[in-house]
Amino acid sequence: MARSPQWHPLAWSSAGVVVGIVAVLLTTTITGLVSNPDDLEDGPIVVLSGRDDSIDGQRQKLISQWNQLHPRSPARIVEASPIADATRSEMLARAQSGRGEVDVFNLDVTWTAEFADAGYIRSLDESRVSTSGFLAGPLATCRYGGKLWALPFNTDVGLLYYRSDLLDAPPRTWDELEDKVQEMRARSGNDVDGYAGQLADYEGLTVTALEAIRGAGGSVVDEDGNLVVENQRAAIAAGIERLRVIAPAGIPELDETSSVRLFQSGRALFMRNWPVTVRSLPQGLEGTPAVAFGVAPLPGGAGVLGGQNLAVSADSTRPRAAQALIEFLTGERSQQILFERGGLPATRQVVYFDQAVRDRYPYIATLEEAISSAELRPAQPHYARFSDVFRAAVNGYLRHDAPLPDDLQDQLVDALKGWLAPADDG
């Protein structure tokens, strides 16, 4: 991936004022933060979303708060498949139907350009929508073609979980991480083995591989969005090779949930996973003690930005109400609730300044560091095809000893143009 943009999401000159404001965000009224209810269309607002991974269903609780304030424009969440690829397919099918069944799409950050380019969502008028106060990276995922198409609901970035009972400190470099894996294998006979990243054949493998490549000093695209595979082939191969070496024996088909299980079982030295996992790990597996763990940014700040964006459907018959709902859900108070009670990383700068939050959740400083150095995936309408082709090459290298295709750059160029069907594994 490209070098990280020099974002400084918390560098506010008004930091002292912000700290004083944040302490009361959770108790202040929010009626003044959204549009006048009299200006909104009457009738239900349908939000189509993937699985709610927040703790204790905080997204639905925020919707319930909206409904109490706006009984004439009540919202409801319709959950699509819990599998990301199936969620995207269902959203595309609903958008293509033209029946106006959806008012708000909760899009993965990599789908925003696709829906915008196809005309499935409405652009937002920045003269009427305030974007100040958002973290720069998450807000950048809402732009495509010079326009703003969404607002960031929650952000995400991979973190490094490590066994704090076996390591005094997290590794600072990928070389050090690899050395620790090899040392532990030699000492434990593979009883504690490797780096439990997301290694199954889905978008999780794309992200895990991009992070490993970035950790090897390599890139797939430069900061202008140009593919640079030909110039970076050695570094790309080095990153994927390291991933093969540090992965648990047999390179298991791990997703986020099975990675957690492996780490909780005590059989992995490291795990790459999303921040919401920090809250669930201490629970341990049934019948076994919880593992002692620490959390850190990925070595070298090699994270790749994830998250979800809220966009108004082009077919919505209630666009003003839909936009007001989006502004409510992405507002400062809602964002603090979503992080504090739901465990999802906030998209608002103000949350990261709250000393009470920092005292209660010390890992928020780690989270801020990881987000500020994270890189964006290509904002392209055909990103899904790009990911399929890239992942097929990675999967072939990891599991079938296949070298990177000589024409990988050409394949990825064609994929981004929408010319190339998803490649077969192997």
From TrEMBL:
Gene3D superfamilies: Periplasmic binding protein-like II (3.40.190.10). CDD domains: PBP2_TMBP. The chain crosses the membrane at residues 12-34. Keywords: Membrane, Signal, Transmembrane, Transmembrane helix, Transport. PANTHER family: MALTOSE-BINDING PERIPLASMIC PROTEIN, MALTOSE_MALTODEXTRIN-BINDING PERIPLASMIC PROTEIN. Belongs to the bacterial solute-binding protein 1 family. This is ABC transporter substrate-binding protein. It comes from Pseudonocardia xinjiangensis.
